[in-house]
Write a structure and sequence with these properties.
The complex is a heterodimer of chains A (107) and B (620). Chain A is built from 2 helices and 9 strands. In chain A, strand 2 and strand 3 form a beta hairpin. The relative contact order of chain A is 0.26. Chain B is an alpha+beta fold. Chain B has 5 domains: 175 residues, Nucleotidyltransferase, domain 5 (2-Layer Sandwich), CATH 3.30.420.40; 95 residues, Nucleotidyltransferase, domain 5 (2-Layer Sandwich); 74 residues, Actin, Chain A, domain 4 (Alpha-Beta Complex); 112 residues, Substrate Binding Domain Of DNAk, Chain A, domain 1 (Sandwich); 95 residues, Substrate Binding Domain Of Dnak, Chain:A, Domain 2. The longest helix of chain B is centred in the C-terminal third of the chain and has 31 residues.
Chain lengths: 107, 620
Amino acid sequence: MAITLTPTAADRVEKFLANRGKGVGLRLGVKTTGCSGMAYTLEFVDDLNPEDTAFESNGVKIIVDPKSLVYIDGTELDFTKEGLNEGFKFNNPNVKDECGCGESFTV
Amino acid sequence: MALLQISEPGMSAAPHQHKLAVGIDLGTTNSLVATVRSGLSSVLADEQGHALLPSVVHYAADNTIEVGFAAQKKLNLDPHNTIVSVKRFMGRGLQDIDISQLPYHFTETSGMLQIDTRAGVKSPVEVSAEILKALKTRAEEALGGELVGAVITVPAYFDDAQRQATKDAARLAGLNVLRLLNEPTAAAVAYGLDNASEGTYVIYDLGGGTFDISILKLTRGVFEVLATNGDSALGGDDFDQRIFCWILETAKLSPRNAYDMRLLLSKAREAKEWLTEHAEANVSCMLSDGEYVNVTLTTQEFINLTATLVQKTLAPTRKAMRDAGLEISDIQGVVMVGGATRMPQIRKMVAEYFKQAPLTNLDPDKVVALGAAIQANVLAGNKSDADLLLLDVIPLSLGLETMGGLAEKVIHRNSTLPIARAQEFTTYKDGQTAMSIHVVQGERELVSDCRSLARFELRGIPPMVAGAARIRVTFTVDADGLLSVSARETSSNVEANITVKPSYGLSEDEITNMLKASFTSAEIDKKARMLAEARVEASAIIEAVKAALSADSALISVEEVQTIEAEIAKLEVIALTEDAEAIHQAVEALNHATEAFAAARMDASVKLALSGKELNTLDL
C-alpha cells in the first residue's frame, strides 16, 4: 500500500511549497483527538524523523510516521472546491465511521 | 467532508479549532478580504469571481441593504440613499468635509457627521459596518467556519477618532479586530515576504480617497517605518472630480441635479480608467432633462487637467524623505499601492522623482489586503516563529515642561517604536519636596505652543538645597504607541508614573500645522527660549541672594545691604521686560554687587567650621 496524491493536489502542494520557500514535502498524519477519536493532520515538512516513511506521488514527497501509517495506508489525498471553499480531502479506505463534519474518524 | 489546509510543522489544529483569520482592506472606493491558506496569501472572491467589493452601500425602498456591485448600480438611480466613499466621513464632523459636491442630506450633529437616508439617520460607522459584514460573510463561506479575527488596514495618518470609528464599525459587523494595521505597512508585509527583499523602500499609496507615502526599512524580516507623510484628502476620486468639472465646462452644462451629477461622475471614472490603456476616451450620456452629452478627452488633456494633483503628491514625498534623512539614491525600490497608481502619469512622475521604475509586480489593488492577511495569520497564532515584528515611528517629539514654560524634548520625533529614554532633572528651590511633571508633545520651544498630554506629581522628595535632588524621568513608548512616563528621585527612590496615549489624540491637520509652525517660527522660538532662560536665571539669583541676606546680613555694612537690595529691585523690574540681554546684564550686576558679601559669608562659614578644632583633626 502507499499514500498518493491526485494530480490536482500535487500541483497545489508544489505551489504552496514554492511560495513558502522551504520544506522538503508534505506530512500526513493522525492525532488521537476529535469527536470520533482520530483527526487528520496536514503539515509542511522541514525535518525528517528517522522512523518516518516516505512516499513519492506525482513529484511530491509524502512523509508519514509509522503510528499514523496504520490508520491511513492506502489514502489518496485530493484537492477540491466546495462552493467558495477549497482545500485538501482525505480519501481513506480504512475509515469505518466519520463525524458529521468529516474532520475526525474511527477505524 | 471538511476540507483541510496545510499547516506549519507541529501547528496542526484540533478538529473544529482552526484559527481562521482574515485581512481586510477597508478602502474608500473598494474593499477586499484576504486570507492565508496552506501558507499562501490570497484574496477571497465572491461567487461571480469578483475580488473587489465596491465600498458602496444602498438603502433600498423595501428596507433591504445592498452592498457592493448591487449598490453601485443604484448610484445613478438613487444617489441620496447610495453612500460611496464613506471612509472619508469616518470620525469626521461636518466642518471637516467639503459637502458642496456631495448628493447626501447631512444631519447636523456635534460629533461625527450623520447621513439622512431612507432607512433613517446613518453614521459612517454603520455604513462601514455593512461593508465589513458583506466581507465577513464572504470569508466565512469561503473558509467554511467562523473567523477568530481580522486585521483591518487604515491609512497611516488616521487619527484616534478615525481609528476608533473603524474599530467600532468592525465590532458592529461582529468582527474581532486583531489589530489595525497601517496600509503602507501591510503593503510592505506583502512585498517583504513574497519577494524576501532587503533595503529601504518607499510605499507610494494613491488610493481612491487618500494618499500616503511611507519610507520603510526592511532588514531580516523586520519592517521599520522610517517616516510617514501624506494627504488624507487626495486620491483617485479627485481625478474623477477634475474630469467631471471638465465635462461640465466642455459641454457647457448648467448646474445639475443629484442624478446627473452622479451619472457624470461615474462617466468621469470610466474615462479615467479607459485612459490608462488608451489614447482618448469618449464620454457620452443622456441627462435627466434629455440633454445629450458627447465629449472626447485625450490623454494629453487628462494629464494637463490633473498635473496639479500629481504634483500634490510630491510635497509629502519630499517631506518624508527629509524626515527619514535619506537621499533619492538610498531608495532601493518604490512600491505602488492603490488603483490610482495605474495611471501612466503617476508612474511616470514617480519614476522620474526616484530615478527608477516603481515596483508593480503585485496587483496594486490587492497588495494591502494580502499583507493584512499575512499579519492576521501570525496574530491568530498559525505561525510558530513570530518573526514578523512591526515597528512604527513617533510623529511628534515628546517631552516635558521645565522652569519658565520651556519644552524639553525627551524623545525626538520619528524615533522608532518601541523606545525608552531617560533624562535627569533637579529641584529649583531649597527644600522643594514635590515636582509637577507636565508631559507635552510638539516641536516648538515653548510649552504653550505644544500639545499638553498629561500632568502628574512626584511627591515625597527629601528636602535638599536647590539643584541637589536627582530626579530621573523616563519616557517609554511601547509597540502599540502607548506612552508611559515615570519619575524617580534617585536618593530616596520615591517614584510616580502615568500612562498616556500620544499621537492619535492629534489630528493629521494638527500634526501638519504643528510641524509647519515649528519651521516658520524657529527664530521667534529661539528668542522666547532665551528670554525664558534669562528670567529663570534672574529669579534663581534673586531667590538665593534674598535667602542669604535674611540669614547673614549682619556680616556686611548697612550700605552694602542697601546696594544689594537696590540691585535686586532693579533686576526684578527688568525681568518683567522682554529684553533677554538687559536681564542678563542686570543678573551680572547683581552678581558683582554681592561679591564682597559672598566672600564674607564664605569666611564666616570657614571660621565656624574651624573654631575649636585642631588642625590634624580636620579632613583636609
